[in-house]
Amino acid sequence: MVIGVLLACLAIAGGAAAWFGFVDREGSTPAASATAPSSSAAGDGGTTSKDLGEGSAPPASSTPAPVPATSEEAALAELETLRAESLAALDLDGRWMAQVASKDVGIIDPLQTAASGSHQFFAVDILAESRAALALAPASQVHVLSSLDFGQRSTAPDGDPYWTTFVDAGFSSADDVRAWCAGAFPALTGDALANACVARRLEPPS
Predict the structure, then answer these.
(1) Does position 5 have pLDDT exceeding 50, yes or no?
(2) Number of structural domains the chain divides into
(3) Which long-range contacts (CB under 8 A, 24 or more apart) does 193-197 make?
(4) Closest by alpha carbon to 150, among 198, 86, 101?
(5) What is the pTM of this model?
(6) If you average pLDDT over residues 56-83, what whole number do you get?
(7) Taking the CB of residue 111, how many other CB atoms lie within 10 A of it?
(8) d(CA 21, CA 115)
(9) In the chain, which end has fewer C-beta atoms inside a 10 angstrom radius, N or C?
(10) How far is the CA of 52 from the CAs of 41, 62, 141, 194, in angstroms?
(11) Half-sphere exposure in the Cβ direction for 166 (13 Å, CA)
């Protein structure tokens, strides 16, 4: 009986570790969402008495669980890298683009849901949206910019710029982009489609 309980516990712990590792590395659904930091993610990440059972102490040789406290920092760093690469590769010449994501850290989008189940998006979610665009177009056509890098500069109510993901597939017009959006997001229509994919011209910032 004791051996059976121990094996069950080990199986549960192994499953939790596998899920944690998946979220930290990939963190997205195909619709572009990720696990947002929670109160537990902001904690010390150590094993508690609740994990071990009342009155138990962690084994002296145990290794502390990974702490995802830097996941937001890592996501922001990767977004900055993607932005620098995009700025170096793109010409702000008025070309038509498909804008497939535009969010600032902490924004609430009632029409989209993060993997956490909420409508609030953090840096890991925004990065996941950019990664999800790779399922829609080759990597060479996917670009990430700040909303201060192009067109009429805009910021969120808190003053932060929006992280914006574009697909540059050689579109000739806004109608061309809209047709592409409908094909890229066949399950969406109306406001939901316009919220997920919209035609924009990439012009110099003003």
Answers:
(1) no
(2) 1
(3) 195/109, 195/111, 195/112, 196/100, 196/111, 196/112, 197/98, 197/99, 197/100
(4) 86
(5) 0.66
(6) 68
(7) 12
(8) 14
(9) N
(10) 19, 12, 49, 48
(11) 26
